[in-house]
Amino acid sequence: MTAAPPAGSDTTESGAGAPRRKAVGLLLGVSLFALLADLGTKQLALAELTGREPVSVLGGAVYFTLTRNSGAAWSIGSDHTWIFPIITFLVIGWIAWMALRLRSLPWAVSLGLVLGGALGNLLDRLFRAPGHFVGHVVDMISLFDPYGQVWPVFNLADSALVCGVVLAVFLELTGRQRDGSRLRDEKRDDAAPAEQRESA
Q1: How far is residue 182's CA from residue 172's CA, in Å, rounded to a whole number?
Q2: Is a pLDDT exceeding 90 seen at residue 77?
Q3: Residue 164's pLDDT is what?
Q4: How far apart are CA 14 and CA 36, in angstroms?
Q5: Which residues are catalytic?
Q6: What does the pLDDT read at residue 187?
Q7: Nearest to 27 by CA among 89, 102, 112, 106
Q8: What is the pTM of this model?
Q9: Which of 11, 25, 84, 155 lies deepest, with the highest CB count within 10 Å?
Q10: Residue extents of the structural domains in the chain
Q11: For residue 62, what are the β-bridge partners?
Q12: Where does the sequence pass through the membrane (predicted)?
């Protein structure tokens, strides 16, 4: 006899409660896509933008300009480049731990974007100049300003990270859990017996 899915499970959107294997597969697929897209655009930027002035597109809303960043946004922490790979390894470990209970496809997309973005920039830190663990990240996209003074120059790995985090915040705010359940439904199920006792 097959056990019924847990109350509040995300069956309609994830297909039979988003089993762990399917969710983890989606996480890995999204992370691989984000990583390959990031690596490809970085190589394209190095080939096409090296030694060139910023290229304006969309009427100046977006500029393509090649920069190498030793720190985070706006070069924060540029004197302590070595700490960013350590942070990334911690993030990867956290995602691996989260995957142990992962049943939700939306959460798989969120974690996959974060993982792919983190790996994209980690590879720069590990293997690009000036050396291992202190490599500079290749950035190439700037909004509204060709030199990144209005908004920091970024890459697709940064975009994946931001989108993944925003999606995670949305999922938390809407009560979606990583195991496929919905927090508000669980609360309603817990409150139902008390209401029934009051009406008896």
Answers
A1: 10
A2: no
A3: 97
A4: 26
A5: 139, 158
A6: 55
A7: 112
A8: 0.81
A9: 155
A10: 27-54+76-140+155-179
A11: 57, 143
A12: 82-100, 107-123, 153-174
